[in-house]
Design goal:
By secondary structure, this protein is of the alpha/beta class. The protein has ten helices and 13 strands. The strands form four sheets. Strands 3-2-1-4-5-6-11 form a seven-stranded parallel β-sheet, with helices on both faces. Strand 5, helix 5 and strand 6 form a beta-alpha-beta unit. The structure holds nicotinamide-adenine-dinucleotide (NAD). The site of nicotinamide-adenine-dinucleotide has 33 residues, from helix 1, strand 2, helix 4, strand 5 and strand 7.
Length: 312
């Protein structure tokens, strides 16, 4: 299949693009390299250095007539979205609409959308949060992702283009972006490798659902074979506290360095964990990666990239 993977120079999009290439798809990538790196783009992919909001990107979608858009390009920093909600909406909403308007009359048959399980539900009314949990995002980023899902529903109703929305929990692994929803992992690892003590804000009992990139790639592949429109949470269903996360990273980096504690961040959500039973039941997918393995792989990648940076 001829696919357009947006954000394919970024963390998740580059891994997903690699997997689709291995599966024999013809993969084109659009990325403006605002956060991604040219080096992350797989050599076999056709790369277009473009902003998803541009007329050039729209023209490309028309002339190439992609059958599917796998949409990972986004402004994905929750704090930035709070500071600059219009920029967040511009990239996340306008950018997607630009591609959808171009694709709807030019062969587009399906969309796979990278949504968020961490930010779309808002403060939990109950845990774990399933796909039917109320959608009350508390950040502009969560609002823009929700708007994208609603727009995709419009394109399905109006033009018959089905979509799959994957609501990712906190994704970590090699190439992860420290500004992302699992950015704390990158920040802790980088500090520990530099011999510095990371600071945990609050008492460290706040929990998140951390999922390793290989498991995220696996569900992207699993949904390629399904028909129609579906929404799936993508997490582990397990809560990990910041204290536990730090211990895991400490074991693989600098066991002699302890964390410090700082003042709690006002308004910080205390718990977040996704119910993943729909994806397990309907796709036969389940996360396979033990956290200790995932953290070790991630630490090794950061070690290698730090030593590459030192020798450059
Ligand atoms: N990492 C997570 O924990 C997480 C959790 C939930 C959802 N997501 C979603 O998954 C997707 C990928 O996230 P990621 O962690 O790989 O982030 P990332 O920043 O590594 O990747 C995003 C890519 O989009 C590109 N991009 C940004 N604005 C663009 C624009 N205007 N035009 C073209 N390209 C643009 C960036 O250069 C980058 O390469 C995002 O949509 C994000 O919202 C990520």
């Amino acid at each position: 299949m001829k696919l357009l993977c947006t954000g394919g120079a970024g963390f998740i999009g580059s891994h997903v693009s690699e997997a689709f290439l291995k599966d024999g798809h013809d993969v084109h990538i659009i990325d403006d390299l605002s956060a991604g790196k040219r080096a992350n783009v797989p050599a076999e992919a056709t790369f277009h250095h473009l902003d998803i909001r541009s007329t050039e990107a729209a023209a490309l979608v028309k002339t190439e007539a992609y059958e599917m858009i796998v949409h990972h390009a986004a402004q994905m920093n929750v704090r930035e979205s709070v500071k600059h909600p219009r920029e967040d909406a511009s990239v996340n909403i306008d950018g997607m609409l630009n591609l959808m308007e171009a694709g709807r009359n030019h062969g587009l048959k399906r969309v796979l959308f990278a949504s968020t399980g961490g930010a779309i539900y808002g403060d939990p009314a109950y845990t774990p949060q399933d796909e039917d949990h109320p959608l009350c995002p508390v950040s502009p980023y969560g609002v823009s992702k929700l708007a994208c899902e609603k727009y995709l529903n419009f394109y399905r109703e109006e033009y018959g283009i089905p979509y799959v929305s994957l609501r990712y929990a906190n994704v970590y692994g090699p190439r992860q972006n420290p500004a992302g929803e699992a950015g704390v992992i990158a920040i802790f690892i980088e500090k520990m490798l530099n011999g510095e003590a990371p600071v945990i804000y609050g008492d460290g009992t706040q929990t998140r659902d951390y999922i390793y990139i290989d498991d995220v790639v696996a569900i992207n592949r699993a949904v390629m074979d399904i028909e129609g429109t579906r929404i799936f949470n993508v997490g582990t269903g397990k809560e990990t506290s910041l204290n536990e996360l730090f211990r895991q990273i400490q074991a693989h980096t600098a066991p002699s360095i302890d964390n410090e504690y700082g003042p709690a961040q006002p308004g910080e959500q205390m718990r977040s964990v996704l119910d993943i039973s729909r994806a397990e039941r309907e796709l036969g997918w389940s996360p396979k990666t033990e956290m200790s393995y995932g953290i070790r792989e991630t630490v090794q990648w950061f070690e290698k990239s730090q030593s590459r940076a030192r020798t450059q």
